[in-house]
Amino acid sequence: MPGDLLGDLPGDLLIGGDWVSRVTDGRVFEVTDPATGEVVATLPDGGAAETQAAIDAADAVRQSWAGTTALERSALLRDAAQRMRADTERLARLITLEQGKPLSESRGEVAYAASFFDWFAEESRRVMGSMVPAPRRDKRILVSKRPVGITAAITPWNFPAAAIARKLAAALAAGCPMIVKPSELTPLTALALGRVFEDAGLPAGVLSVVVGSDPAAVAGPLMSDFRVRAVSFTGSRPVGELLMRQAAPSMKRITLELGGQAPFIVFPDADITAAADGAVASKMRNMGQTCVCANRFYVHEHVAGEFQEALAERLRSMPVGNGFDDGVQIGPLINQDAVEKVDAHVDDALRGGATLVLEGGRDAGSSGHFYRPVVLSGVTESMRVVQEETFGPVSPIMTFQTEDEVVRRANATEFGLAAYCYTRDLSRVFRLVDRLEFGILGINDGVVSTAEGPFGGVKGSGFGREGGTVGIDEFVDSVYVSIGNVHD
């Protein structure tokens, strides 16, 4: 099966329009299937030299790509989206192969990624300037928008297609070249996207994909070279803080989408069936390995028993297994480190007095990194499963009594990416919108991601937005033009 999926891939780095099959020192690294532990590909191990070559190639075409018309960029992005949709099955199977999520989710990710190319195909035609009323009759004031220059994307393993598409689509639409550094755990999908754009006719050098086992070696030139003017990163807060420090000497624009500690709040007037369905949709997307997954459950004491049983019932019935197998809804975690972290969080909670509503845990008889869903009650804020982002299929449930109390507890974190609330009280909805300190709110909605919405967080979850009408703003500069001597 891997051979069939990889047959159309060069298995190389994409640098300046060339597929590079060997790096300077001949190093390689392996990509494994998290469901089986098997090696599925061996790739050249790119580093600083390859990244520098990609920057040079982008610099050579920067002005020519910026000079293309919005209509030309729009047509190319739309063509790429159509090619992705036509090749959905192969791309989806590639995502499942290297990342592990069930094939149905991988198909959804391909569609989601393609939607960003469609969206920014339209937004590229709406990067508009303005004329500002001048303070004197002999002047005119114009505001023009222009591409920021060479850009870079540093992306995680959990959405190997969509995480790239959200950044790449906006950059290309704005007229910027981009260098993509995907996760070393899931580089194959990134290379497949490189081939998609090559086939769509993107000029050589506008997109490079540099993969390697040492993220710092690839990121180093991206952060130090002054020609790279904007970097978009999705990943952990410690790495985000490091990139901010590295961006300072060259005054780069940086967009950070970091971790989340998403609260999921169920009020006493909520539709419990809908709340349980929404909890599963939020918590179990990609086996709980997303930055917007519900991480802390706050359920009103009057409905806590009903909700936790409804949630456990749904999770209990979800088949666990290889993402390629029919009917599987829960695939493996990405690697053994992820399994160990989830297990440690559960053990810490149980030692602290939490109880199991649904006993899941690791699958000791499997060669893959499988972890069955766990539901915990009697959880307290001091436990690691609440204080840290678990990134796995664990649902820790706490109770509350009042709205003021739960808002205070939900906000008591340095993070602020997403929050979820279930209630039928419209007045409460508007109060929560004003009071909850998060960049994304799902009100009676467990699935919040869409190309049309501005995705991003506040506080320790970073800054900047991807998608929506503002996503392209991360890649353009406003140029103020003051014109004098208008009248003779």
TrEMBL record:
Domain Aldehyde dehydrogenase: start-end pairs: 20-477
Top-level division of the source organism's lineage: Bacteria
Family according to the record: Belongs to the aldehyde dehydrogenase family.
GO biological process: gamma-aminobutyric acid catabolic process
Any one GO molecular function term: succinate-semialdehyde dehydrogenase (NAD+) activity
Positions of transmembrane segments: none
Protein name per Swiss-Prot or TrEMBL: NAD-dependent succinate-semialdehyde dehydrogenase
Keyword flag Oxidoreductase: yes
A Pfam family this chain is assigned to: Aldedh
Acyltransferase listed as a keyword: no
Organism: Phytoactinopolyspora alkaliphila
InterPro entries membership: Ald_DH/histidinol_DH, Ald_DH_C, Ald_DH_N, Aldehyde_DH_dom, Aldehyde_DH_Superfamily
UniProt keyword list: Oxidoreductase
